[in-house]
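Following up on my earlier thread - several people asked me to post the actual chain instead of describing it. Fair enough. Here it is, all 313 residues.
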Amino acid sequence: MNFVVMIQSVLMMASMLGIGALLTKKVNFNEDTRTLLTTLIVSVAVPCVIVGSFFQLPHEEGLYGHLLIVFAFSLGTYAISLFLTWWLGRLLGMSKFQSSQMAVISAQGNTGFIGLPLCLILFGSKGVILAAVFDTGVGISLWTMSVMVINHRYSITLRSLKPMINIPLIAFFVGLLLSIFQFDAPETLLQFLLKLGALASPLALIYIGFFLPKLFRSNKQTNFKPLIIGISIKLLVVPLITIGILSSLPLDKLTKQVILLMSTMPTGSMVPILFAHLKADEEFGAQATVFATITSLLTIPLMYGLGSWILSI
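Reply from S.P.:
Thanks for posting it. Predicted structure:
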């Protein structure tokens, strides 16, 4: 892994966050603006990254077995971080409501908005496919495990599963089927998908940057204890747990690299959306997303570097 590329990527992330913050002086960041950006990212750019990467994927023996392992790893680490953090919050005397929210920000990573484009830059098409599988596990966990913890109802219904059906998930299964049947995309179509997919990371980071001025101007008193604990677990403890598990698994180098990098992602931008949907504290979720993203500019190379050294990858 070229750490110069990693540092360059982190610096670009910081620059894009700054651009988003500066744009708020010229652009009214209202509901229409948020809807436009999230639609472009989730419904256009990210699906193009996924399908375009499947078209570039080499047909290798054992690939689909690796995809299954990555998917199981994603679900497992999410569950571990979610329920351990909830238990820690209760042990520290927090209410069920605070513990639940803290648990979600510690488990939910920005594996789609930031993770997928970053894996494309660092690992190429195969890395993106592995990352997309990891992100699928995170998305499923968000609308099942996290909803259960927030609502304190530990059962799954068809209604609770409905939000999981989204365009990136559909794009993943479409791309998977095209890959299985070895469909060769015309070069023009491939370039079209890749150029649209390249918008994903800049738009996502600019979108998060839009929240910065509003949060720093907010008059609402921030409860820093669950915020700091949740973000610390997400950015430091979860990668360490991942490193420990990976050290005992006989996986190839690329699979370990992708899983390790995805485990270092900051709190996901879907968290405030989930909190708003469940009548929880949307502003707390937004604060977690922004502060975790800023802090991750330091922790991503730190934790990835530590993991690479321990795992010798």
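The two ends are 8 Å apart (CA to CA). That should answer part of your original question.
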